[in-house]
Amino acid sequence: MVQEDKAQKQPMEFYNMSDFLKGQSSKLITRLSDEDKAAFVLKNGKPIAVLISNERYERLLKAGIDITEY
Predict the structure, then answer these.
(1) The pLDDT value given to residue 65
(2) What are phi and psi of 11, to 5 degrees?
(3) 3-state secondary structure of 31
(4) Contact between residue 51 and residue 27 where contact means Cβ atoms under 8 Å apart
C-alpha cells in the first residue's frame, strides 16, 4: 500500500483587495485559518501581501524561520 504524500505543494490562493473592502475580511481570514493555508492579496492584479494561518507561522518558527527578520 502506497502512502499518499501529504507534503504535496498546492498553489496558493489569491484574494483581491476589493474582497476585503466589501466586508469579506473576516470570512476570508477565518477560512484561511481553518484550512491552514497561505494566500496572496492582490491589488490591481499584483501581489501586495501574503496572509498565512497562525499554525503555518508557528511551524515556520519551529523550523527556525522567523519571517519578521527579513
Answers:
(1) 92
(2) -65, 145
(3) helix
(4) no
Q: What is the dihedral of CA 50, 31, 12, 16, to 10 degrees?
A: -60
Cα distance between residue 4 and residue 38, in whole Å:
22
The C-alpha cell 519571517 sits at 67
pTM of model > 0.90: no
For residues 66 and 59, give the distance between their C-alpha atoms in angstroms, rounded to a whole number: 10
Quote the radius of gyration of the chain (alpha carbons, Å).
14
Taking residue 32's Cβ as centre, other Cβ atoms within 10 Å add up to 19
At 13-22, the pLDDT tens digits run: 899 999 888 8
